[in-house]
UniProtKB/TrEMBL annotation:
SUPFAM superfamilies: PDZ domain-like, Trypsin-like serine proteases. It is found in: Plastid, Chloroplast. Residues 311-383 form the PDZ domain. This is Protease Do-like 1, chloroplastic isoform X2. The gene is LOC106770312. GO terms for biological process: photosystem II repair; proteolysis. It comes from Vigna radiata var. radiata (Mung bean). Pfam families: PDZ_2, Trypsin_2. Transmembrane segments: none annotated. Belongs to the peptidase S1C family. Keywords: Chloroplast, Hydrolase, Plastid, Protease, Serine protease, Transit peptide. One of its GO terms (cellular component) is chloroplast thylakoid.
């Protein structure tokens, strides 16, 4: 193995001949060890890694003292700067990316409609088991939205069901006591009213749900799990779906199905289209576990509009009825018949006046089944949902022709 020698050059004093002048051969080859040490008193130590260094010099080069000091300082500074370049690069911060046009539209939609969405707290009176004190404790929460400048708030009925007191929190975190104006259990819609200044109330823009298309984008705003306003996005997955009311079990037709996440607390919040207009009320999800599984349902705004108008004006909804009680569909299926079995038709009701027979027992205790409705105005009726669907399309005072089958004994 070749042996490398170490050459160390030290500048002793200004009177040294090296500071005055130096005469060196045109080309000098210096065999170095792995590190060349250039020492200068009271300055610093420079290490230049190189196994072999060839230094070409001019003949009879005379180096003045000030110039030599300047060149040495510049060379050392440059070496330190280059050696720290890699570590400095780690601290370089890139500028944030610009939002795309669709992202900007989504952000704008959320910012413009958030002031219209409120948070509703359902309070119930409970008695403490140990102190027997009567307390108001939260038993549920949900979302809602401002309907008009008069302080009317629209939400789901199941959000306020069983409440002894209701609190509404606006977007600016101000809280007000709310009174129930009216509700429709069959369609799961309720209207509240708060005494808030009109300048704090921002009604949500009302849209139309009749011309919706599967695949168009939708946006759901709410307060899931009691958090601040949140936004979830998705598309319309299906139209004209049917779900049952959580309160009465009566079917709700023409429901919008969406894959936008509707978590607990989103109930009663608005479903918006890409223009920021209301197209539905988020009301339910289909999930065995209770978590959002990509199948959410919203009551269409065309249905909500008519219900809210009646609740605001009259405090209740006027809906056509036959004035009967009918048997569950499972019981009718066990009899092997199709239609709606009349259990009770009061004589002063529309069905009783028309002559429909109720289910009763004879003198021997045998069950005599009442009439079975099989059609209304030539529209086939196979179960209770069919009957409700037909009645929802009728108006109060209209006359309808019922087709019934004869009674049978059990």
């Amino acid at each position: 193995m070749a042996t490398c020698s170490l050459i160390s050059t030290r500048f002793h004093s200004p009177s040294s001949s090296l500071f005055r002048s130096s005469t060196i051969k045109p080309t000098t080859t210096i065999q170095l060890s792995k590190t060349l040490h250039l020492h200068y008193p009271n300055l610093f130590l420079l290490r230049l890694p190189s196994p072999k260094l060839t230094i070409p010099l001019l003949p009879k080069l005379s180096i003045p003292k000030p110039l030599l000091l300047l060149c040495t300082s510049l060379a050392l500074s440059f070496t330190l700067l280059v050696s720290n370049a890699d570590s400095a690069a780690a601290f370089v911060v890139t500028s944030p990316r610009k939002l795309q046009s669709d992202e900007l539209a989504t952000v704008r939609l959320f910012q413009e409609n958030t002031p219209s969405v409120v948070y509703i707290t359902n309070l119930a009176v409970k008695q403490d088991a140990f102190t027997l004190d009567v307390l108001e404790v939260p038993q549920g929460s949900g979302s809602g939205f401002v309907w008009d400048k008069n302080g009317h708030i629209v939400t789901n009925y199941h959000v306020i069901r069983g409440a002894s007191d209701l609190k509404v929190t606006l977007a600016d975190q101000s809280t007000y006591d709310a009174k129930v104006v009216g509700f429709d259990q069959d369609k799961d819609v309720a209207v509240l009213r708060v005494e808030a200044p009109s300048d704090k109330l921002r009604p949500i823009p009302i849209g139309v749900s009749a011309d919706l298309l599967v695949g168009q984008k939708v946006y759901a705003i709410g307060n899931p799990f009691g958090l601040d306003h949140t936004l979830t996005t998705g598309v319309i997955s299906g139209l004209r779906r049917e779900i049952s009311s959580a309160a009465t079990g009566r079917p709700i037709q023409d429901v919008i199905q969406t894959d936008a996440a509707i978590n607990p607390g989103n109930s009663g919040g608005p479903l918006l289209d890409s223009s920021g207009n209301l197209i539905g009320i988020n009301t339910a999800i289909y999930s065995p576990s209770g978590a959002s599984s990509g199948v959410g349902f919203s009551i269409p705004v065309d249905t909500v509009n008519g219900i809210v108008d009646q609740l605001v004006k009259f405090g209740k909804v006027t809906r056509p009825i036959l004035g009967i009680k009918f048997a569950p569909d499972q019981s009718v299926e066990q009899l092997g018949v199709s239609g709606v079995l009349v259990l009770d038709a009061p004589a002063n009701g529309p069905a009783g006046k028309a002559g429909l027979q109720s289910t009763k027992r004879d003198s021997y205790g045998r069950l005599i089944l009442g009439d079975i409705i099989t059609s209304v105005n030539d529209k086939k009726v196979t179960n209770g949902s069919d009957l409700y669907r037909i009645l929802d399309q009728c108006k109060v005072g209209e006359k309808k022709v019922l087709t019934r089958s004869s009674s049978i004994h059990q």
